[in-house]
Fold this protein.
Amino acid sequence: MRYSELLLPTLKETPAEAEVMSHKLLLRAGFIRKLSSGIYTYLPLGLASIRKVEQIVREEMNRAGAQELLMPMVQPADLWKESGRWEKYGPELLRFTDRHDRESCLGPTHEEVITDLVRRDIHSYRDLPLNLYQIQTKFRDEIRPRFGLMRGREFIMKDGYSFDATESGAEITYGKMFDAYHRVFKRCGLSFRAVEADTGTIGGSFSHEFMVLADTGEDTLVICRNCSYAANMEKAAVAPPEKPGEDVGLLPLQKVETPGKRKVDVVCEFLGISPRELVKTMVYLADGDPVAVLVRGDHEVQPVKLKNMLGAVDVEMVDEKQIFDITGVPSGYLGPLGLDIPCAADREVAAMVNFTVGANEKNYHLQNVNLPRDFKVFQVADLRQLTEEDKCPSCGGELELTKGIEVGHIFKLGDSYSKALKATFQDSSSEEQNFVMGCYGIGVSRTVAAAIEQNHDQHGIIFPLPLAPFQVIILNLDPKNQEITAAAESLYSQLQQEGLEVLLDDRDERPGIKFKDADLVGIPYRITIGKRFVQEGEVEIRTRADGITQSLSPDKALTEVVSAIHDGMAATWE
RNA sequence: CGGGGCGUAGCGCAGCCUGGUUAGCGCGCCUGCCUUGGGAGCAGGAGGUCGCAGGUUCAAAUCCUGCCGCCCCGACCA
């Protein structure tokens, strides 16, 4: 491709709307343009990178025995009503009615459609297992789209669904997908980690998220330095607390005045105690019903754990005003004694003695509170967020917390959809059985954003070779010079003949602009042809990632770049 | 939806508080000259319903009201 013919509108300045690096660079490097909130046009280079990810995904899915198909984006409401998700899914599902007043929606995911397809056409265990996938634009009416391609309303996703005859078969399929996902992200040239994930409302114990490691990631990962344990923070189990020493006697309950002291650290300072000796009472609404959660003063409630413990669809924290409306107590003085709503406690709290809580009365706290002497809870469970001080729940080793971007998620679904949609087959003894399903997603467009988030510097993107829109760029520094131009054109066609993806910057621009654009766009290899070629017969090759530069004859440069790219591509394979 | 911020040329911004005649600046764009190994220089030029609607006023980018859009923080998720 010739730069002079390419739609590649690079920007010198960052549009004000962009906050995170991948968004800024995608805009500046001419990869995307926004149409409206969370909805983007992929310009030629942006699309090229997306296609790279798609192709890798395709090859690895096919290699793992999955088959590609393409399902409709517009889906009838009836199918969603059948699965029960028309009511459950919420406003994220974009619904509309057509000219005949038929209700429809834009597919945010395709469990319903694929299950409907399979129940119509597959009737025998002999046809199983079956693993199907598609790569398609999804629409989710996100509450808050943000960060460019990182969380769009419209985005490109690979979604795959497997159908097995048995649980054990489904687990084998899950394992295959787990391995395939490893290969996908390895081939993308990304630094990533698979972590145990919350299964959400779907349930079941099998779920992994594939996380691209990047400081700007929205998720926090817990990784053991000692064993193979790795989990999403919201899922990460906290090791059970140590029991207190046996000789600790229970002291009598005592009410103390704490005028105007509401925050944990303020109360603790005033009373001369540590936050480890205080218990916070947090109020949540679980599907609309208030519930109080007790955690130690220096801990935080993990809402996902609470949600799973309660079996709720949705839990949300309440604000100060709601706390007063619900409990009649101003926030800051809330405590479990005499509280009028159900109360659950983190395991850590259950192991504490003589602790301090709010008195459910303005300007008062209670000290030397003890469970179960002074109050009862309906449940003790692991409800708090893990901290850096905690030990690995698997081996007791040191933990490391790091940030990641979720680019893939695999679930073992079980039979929840096949039951709801009455999707069955006959097993070898002619018994009707529900399919055992799995589902597997990859955020294709997000993967491109995550790659940039992970690989950039002050000058621009540093694409991993497998995702780069072009593998090599040739800079013709002086298109008016016939000798230079002839050399550039010759290298251009030779590289193309070698099967490489090459961009020739043949624009009538000053060298500085060409250097800056090449750095910004992040093409892995750069060949510069300028007056040094006229003087010494040499061109310059430079790698974007490490800036290593060498001057060579055009012939040597050609073989050097060709072999470097072949080696680089091969290195991402297992 | 709750909280915060923004909307003036393709991009980045100033002007608004304290209303006043042709609405500015930098970058980009067009023409010419010049320059050519890290976003040059000179000269000339094009480009604006000041987000939309209403109101106040002799007069509104500026003050008031309503609406729309966009961004950031929270819940959601590939």
Notes: Residues 167-187 of chain A form the longest helix (21 residues). Residues 73 and 107 of chain A are 5 Å apart (CA to CA). Residues 470-570 of chain A form a domain with the Rossmann fold fold (CATH 3.40.50.800). The radius of gyration of chain A is 29 Å.
